[in-house]
Write a structure and sequence with these properties.
This protein is an alpha+beta fold. It has two domains: 1-22 and 215-239; 23-214. The chain has two helices and eleven strands. The chain has helices at residues 2-20, 217-238; strands spanning 23-36, 40-47, 56-70, 73-78, 84-97, 109-120, 141-145, 153-161, 173-186, 192-197, 200-213. The strands form three sheets. A four-stranded antiparallel beta sheet has the order 1-11-3-8, with no helix packed on it. Strands 2-9-5-6 form a four-stranded antiparallel beta sheet, with no helix packed on it. Strands 7-4-10 form a three-stranded antiparallel beta sheet, with no helix packed on it. The radius of gyration is 31 Å and the shape is rod-shaped. It binds calcium ion (2 copies). The site of one calcium ion has 9 residues, from loops.
């Protein structure tokens, strides 16, 4: 009988130990920006992390941003008499922000591009501010096309651990904005005539709460009382 009681208490201690170990978990919220032609402006409302009266502890906040681009084109015609060469870029940029929660040190500005080296002769005599008479061609002209969707450019930043997790804790919400723009650039001489076709884009902002749940002392007391009750019942039955 004494041995059974000791074993029962040992089991109770184990139960108590098991429930007092904090369990780690994650909550993931995602802002998905579908296929679109920039420029566009998006806003999504995220839930803050509810601490459930302090029993849920926010360990860290990790943020991942993704920007994709495909399609579009960029053509440059050199209106200078001298030749020029440089890297041409065709793609999109995106900027994320929040008026309510500091995202730092997350990279809030992303750029996704395709590039090509343009070696352009001096103008072949076509008008300034215009291409050659059609068909567009000439040693002073070149163009770059973005890839097909299957070969799209994908830029990912993160996951980055946010420096101010307290900004994300509470029972309310916060907004995240996502703005994208068309992007073209040529690193050679200025005084160019250029033309571009819009690239497509998609993207994502993912915010993850890494947290730990600690049982409330009151719950522990009830568990212990239940265990003692069970033990007492077993003792009565075996007596
Ligand atoms: Ca020209
Ligand atoms: Ca030309």
């Amino acid at each position: 009988m004494r041995m059974a009681t000791v074993m029962g208490l040992a089991a109770l201690a184990l139960v108590g130990f098991g429930t007092s170990v904090a369990s780690a978990d994650v909550i993931t919220q995602t802002m998905t920006v579908g296929s679109n032609y920039p420029p566009n402006h998006y806003v999504q409302t995220f839930n803050k992390f509810d601490t459930h009266g302090g029993t849920w502890v926010l360990d860290s906040v990790t943020i991942t941003t993704v920007l994709e681009t495909w399609g579009g084109y960029y053509a440059v015609d050199n209106d200078n008499t001298s030749a020029t060469s440089g890297e041409a870029y065709r793609g999109v940029s995106a900027t994320i922000g929040s008026p309510d929660a500091r995202l730092a040190p997350v990279l809030t500005s992303l750029l996704a591009t395709t590039s090509k080296t343009f070696n352009l002769a001096g103008t072949v005599g076509d008008p300034v501010g215009a291409y050659n008479a059609p068909p567009v061609s000439g040693a002073d002209w070149d163009s770059l096309s973005g890839p097909a969707y299957a070969g799209r450019v994908i830029v990912t930043s993160g996951p980055v651990v946010a420096s101010f997790p307290g900004d994300f804790a509470g029972t309310g919400t916060f907004d995240v904005s996502y703005d994208n723009l068309q992007y073209v650039n040529f690193s050679g001489l200025g005084n160019l005539w250029s033309e571009s076709g819009a690239a497509q884009s998609a993207g994502k902002v993912e915010i993850v709460y890494n947290y730990t749940v600690t049982p409330e002392p009151v719950t522990m007391a009830f568990l212990a009382m239940g265990g003692i009750g069970l033990l007492a019942a077993r003792r009565r039955k075996t007596a």
